[in-house]
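Form 7-S
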Amino acid sequence: VDFLPIGYKQRTEIVKTLFRGIDILILDEPTSVLAPMEIKEFLLFLKKLKEKGKTVIFISHKLKEVFEIADRITILRRGKNVGTFRINEISEEEVAKLMVGEKLRELSSKSEMFFKDEEAYFYTKDLSYVRQGKHILDSIQISVKRGEIVGIAGIEGNGQEELSQILIGLLKPSQGQVIFRGKDITNLSVEERRRMGIGYIPPDRIKWGLALEASIAKNCAINFRRTFLKRGISIDWKKAYQISETVIKEFDVRGVRDLKEPVSSLSGGNMQKLMVGREHHTAPEFLIVSQPTAGVDIQAQRLIHSKLLELRNKKVGILLISLDLEELLLLSDRLYVIFNGKITKEFSSPKEFDIQEISSYMTGIKS
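Output:
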């Protein structure tokens, strides 16, 4: 099973469940780690289960997939049922409006890329990472210019998480270099990289992004602690609270009753918005972003996408690592594909983006 593509592993798990004689199958965001071609095959597989008399409850934010396979749809907003419809009684746009309770925010316009002919100010040289004798990353060479979003597409588990950790300084590469503004930063700490203007939105808000038992204010202020020091001794909490309130307002973080409450009191989606807002507010010179819209609703996705485009339009370079290919195609100026820890293809402009071809590289059909 170890050697099967992720889509087949998922089907294997479902077959194991069916073998126990179940009649109702509940799937929560089952396509989040699948490539486009695998999604198509997986949805066909679910349709065949339905034809055999099985009931499938398909929980997803991806409306196109819901509309492709569902007979009925129930829409939840803030834990409440706001409507149940047969699929031919409602449109995708109407569902989206019911999900967020208002018209979807317009996405910020994407201006022309800045400094097209300028050399990259962030890049890697032959970056490799070996763990227990296995190459997790192999000779990675990527680059980012000011004012562009460069996407990394790949199925989960192909080295993306390790790559983001090496770039911010959480892991040391086995070989190779990380260069920023002409300086080798390979051996610099996370703190030193942040002082140089590098921001980081990690893929896992629980493990890497937030201190769950610390207050909402402390989690907002953590990147600004030097700014808030009074005489280098204590934190100016008045300033910290002001920054926190700004982040909460700009990123529509809901459920905040008191800034002194632990951040764990927020829902997962609101924790994500808080973490993204905190990084956005630091005004980074370069931003490493991994899975920025994980676990958030459509309106929050639009908000986060708009904020990333705002930074890009202010000449900030962004490396965007995402499992959501639609997100990458929407935001990226260039795109790399990673498979088995190697960059197997670069698409140098949006005009070259082709879902089927990208998917072929993501799954190793092409290399």
